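pinning this so it doesn't scroll away 📌
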Amino acid sequence: MAFDQVAGAFCDHYYPAFQTRQSRVNLQGLYRDDSMMTFQQDRIQGTAAIMAKLTGEDGVKFNHIKHVPASLDAHPTLNNGVLIQVTGHVVIDGDESKPIPFAQTFVLQPLPGTTSYYILSDIFRLIIH
C-alpha cells in the first residue's frame, strides 16, 4: 500500500476510535513501549502511560470528541514509515457552536513481518488564541 493510502486508512480508523472514552481503549494496539505522545503540553511515553492519558480519570477530560479533519498530508519516511499531518477542528461533547481548531502529527512505523503500522510519535495541539 502506498504511503498516502496508509495515511488515509490510518486516519479513517484512528479518529472514529478516539470519539468516546470507551472507544479509545481500541487505540491501545496502535501504540508500543517506544511510542511517544505530546498532548497539548504533556509529553508521555509508552503504551500504558498513553492509554492512561486517553482513557483515565486524570487524562482527556471530555466524554465525546469528534474530529473533523480539513486536511491530511503524508510523506514517506526512512525504514518505510509514514509522516502524517492533519488539521481541522474538534467538536467537544456535541457542542457544534464551539468548534476548536487542531493540528496533529503522526509518525507511523511498520511492524516487522506484517503489513501493519504502529504510532511511533503522536503530537496533538488545539489551536487556541
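📌 and the second one:
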Amino acid sequence: MTDPDIARGTKVFIGGLDERTRKEDVIDFFRPAGNVESVWIARAPPGFGFVTFEDARDARDAVHDFDGLQLMGRRVRVELATAYPKDKRKRRDRDHDRYRDRDRDRDRYY
C-alpha cells in the first residue's frame, strides 16, 4: 500500500540530520519552500526524517533548493520520498549478485 503523500508528490526525505534536530528546526529550515503539513523525525536510528508539504510544487522546490544545505551544522540530503528506500534496493541487488557469484564458484569445484 502506497503512502498517499508519496503518491501526491508532497513528501520529501531529509537525511543527514543531527540527532538533536527537533521538529521545529525542520519546519524553520523549510519555511521558505512553502507550507509544511507534517514532520516526522526518526529517533532509532536517528539521522533522517520525512516532511510533507501542502503542495507538490513546494516539495519539488525543496528538493531542488535545499539539497546539500546545512541544518544545525550538518549537510543534509533532500529527495522526493519514494515507496522503497534507495539504499535497500541497492543492497538487495548486491546481495543477490553475491549469492549468485558464490553459486558459480561452487560449481567450478564440483
